[in-house]
Structure prediction request, 128 residues.
Amino acid sequence: MGVTAKALSIGLQPIEVNGPTEFESEFSGWTEKQIGGLVILDHPDFLASFDVIAALAAKHRLPSIGALELPASGGLMGYGVRFSEMFRRAAALVDKILKGGETRRHPGRTGYQIPVGPQSQGRQGARY
Prediction:
């Protein structure tokens, strides 16, 4: 992501949080730093907190992009694979292995999706 940001002359500021308890204070600080948007990495703390993250992003008028589940919580856009589906398929495969089943021909799908949040449809170019 850093190489692409540099090529596009976009400043990229990685910010670490140690969990959901730090979201509110971090968002407030980002507003002061004039952050123009938010890219959320795929991490279990973030995946489980999209409702909070999307609400804070809207409150602070920051466009937010993250995993596929983010737009359903109010984020602007999502990308990647559907983790909930991957976890279900992994559980089914583990169950099959534990029962001694055949796993050599495991059907795998690699569908990559980019959903856009319903609240942003028709507002392309709108400033946050």
About this structure: Residues 61 and 128 are 5 Å apart (CA to CA). DSSP finds five helices and three strands in the chain.
